[in-house]
Specification:
With 313 residues, this protein is mainly alpha-helical. It has 13 helices and 4 strands. Strands 1-2 form a two-stranded antiparallel ribbon. It has a two-stranded antiparallel ribbon with strand order 3-4. Strand 1 and strand 2 form a beta hairpin. Helix 9 crosses helix 12. The C terminus is likely disordered.
Length: 313
């Protein structure tokens, strides 16, 4: 007996439908679920085996049932099996739902109207059912759309985009609070733990001592232990300078391609810890005196040539 869909096709379709559903619903990160979780692979293999077993069993049942039929029933069943796809009853009903039956089609003479436009004649012909259904569907859609957006005030595409962008900014800000490698000059903080300062010192000696000396007294680069800064002091300004580099043409290089944000935070914290260490033969002060804006609020003593913590030269 001929089936509309062969058994091997239905087995493959069902198996890959289950496979796709598991990959969609199981959170496996960057790896496929069947690789990350071995039990998924075991389940898929068992599922495939069950599908094949069911297919074989149904085929066997069909064969047994066919042999139990009378000759007349076998002939009728064979006739239906040999019937083409377009001759089936359900297909004809489906077509008649969307296409006007030929029995309702009349000649043009019966549909001709008494209108003549430069030799072009008009027929009073009924629209095909599929066009009428689409027209009714568009009316329903228009009513629902008007009620939802114009009366109930639902978010349109522009408003949805604005909300998604705002939510994304909130999520990025929350993530950056706990992700050191996503740190920027607005979220960086001073580290005071001995282990962090020790790691910062090691990075400083490796990358910064050549220009600023091992004791940070300054050589090619400026002295980092006094209160004078060319591009602003404090953790935020120092971090900004490390990320983006110094003055164009004569400042240090940008370290964002070499050091990670967490490493630059440690270096900046170590440099801040050297303030007032007064190394021997330190380089003459450069720039202006820098005072932390928050710290300046707690004192009434004016500091000459001072700039606030947000100023970057």
């Amino acid at each position: 007996m001929k089936k509309l869909i062969p058994a091997y096709v239905s087995v493959i379709v069902i198996f890959f439908a289950a496979f796709g559903a598991m990959e969609y619903f199981i959170d496996s990160g960057n790896q496929p679920a069947f690789i990350r979780y071995p039990m998924v692979s075991v389940f898929l293999l068992v599922f495939l085996f069950v599908l094949i077993a069911i297919s074989i069993t149904m085929r066997a049942v069909d064969n047994i049932t066919y042999h139990l039929l009378t000759e007349q029933e076998k002939a009728e069943l064979q006739e239906k099996s040999d019937e083409s796809f377009t001759d089936s009853e359900w297909y004809k009903k489906l077509v008649s739902t969307f296409v006007r039956p030929e029995s309702t089609i009349v000649s043009e003479d019966q549909l001709l109207l008494e209108h003549d436009y430069d030799g072009i004649k008009e027929l009073d012909n009924n629209l095909p059912p599929w066009w009428v259904y689409l027209f009714y569907a568009s009316i329903v859609f228009g009513i629902v759309y008007m009620v939802r957006f114009e009366i109930l005030g639902a978010d349109d595409q522009e408003m949805e985009l604005a909300k998604e962008i705002a939510q994304a900014k909130i999520e990025v800000a929350e993530y950056m609070k706990t992700a050191p490698d996503m740190m920027d000059e607005e979220t960086v903080t001073v580290l005071t733990a001995a282990a962090d300062l020790s790691a910062g010192k090691e990075i400083y000696i490796t990358n910064c001592a050549a220009c600023h000396r091992a004791d940070a007294g300054g050589q090619i680069g400026p002295n980092l232990t006094d209160d004078y800064w060319i591009l602003g002091g404090g953790i935020k300004n120092i971090f900004h300078t490390l990320v983006n580099g110094g003055r164009d043409g004569k400042g240090m290089i940008a370290w964002k391609g070499t050091l990670k944000p967490k490493e630059m935070q440690k270096v900046a914290s170590y440099i801040i810890s050297l303030r007032g260490s007064d190394p021997a033969d330190a380089k003459e002060a450069e720039g202006e005196v820098w005072v932390d804006k928050d710290a300046a609020k707690s004192t009434t003593i004016p500091v000459p040539n001072a700039i606030d913590s947000t100023q970057v030269k």
